[in-house]
Structures are given as C-alpha cells and as structure tokens.
Amino acid sequence: MLNPGERVDLDGGEGHRESETLATMADWAPILLGYVLFILLSPGLLFQVPGNTRRLEFSSFTTNGKAIAVHTLIFFVIFTILILALGIRIYTG
C-alpha cells in the first residue's frame, strides 16, 4: 500500500527512472455538494413538487412517491451541472 507523498517508480526499475509523488489532495466537491443538495432537496423539508394537496407545497414535512422521484431527478440534474458542466472542485491538503 502506498502512502501519500511516497515516491513511485513508474518503469519497474529498469532503464530510465521516472518517478512521481502521489498527490495528497482530495476533491471534496462531490461529497459536500451532494450532502448540501440532499438536505435542501429532501421532499417536504423546504418544498415538495408535487405536493399531497397542491402542485407545490412548502414545509409540509410529508412526502409521497411522486415527490421522491421528482426530487431525485432535480438532485441529479443540479449535481451533474455543478460537478461536470461547471467543474466545481474543492481541494484539501
């Protein structure tokens, strides 16, 4: 197992020796954005589409199967746009 910062021999030890240091940075954007979007887009917490009695309900704290499916699609679209299209990255280390 390799440790961060450890040098790695890329050619197996023969001939020209090229080495590379393993990166110690990690991309935290998918984790943090996924966490925040999951909380904000939970059906019934802030809003719910479709609602139980109307098309849009605010802070009802109830849910249904259709709302779960709609909020899942909304989550996927927003998450994909932020991570892939806009290329948001959060590095540590």
From TrEMBL:
Coiled coil region boundaries: none
UniProt keyword Transmembrane helix, yes or no? yes
TM region positions: 28-47, 68-91
Please provide the record's keywords in A-Z order: Membrane, Transmembrane, Transmembrane helix
What's the short name of a Pfam family annotated to this entry? DUF3339
Please tell me whether the keyword Transmembrane is annotated for this protein: yes
Q: What is this protein called?
A: Transmembrane protein
The major lineage groups are:
Eukaryota, Viridiplantae, Streptophyta, Embryophyta, Tracheophyta
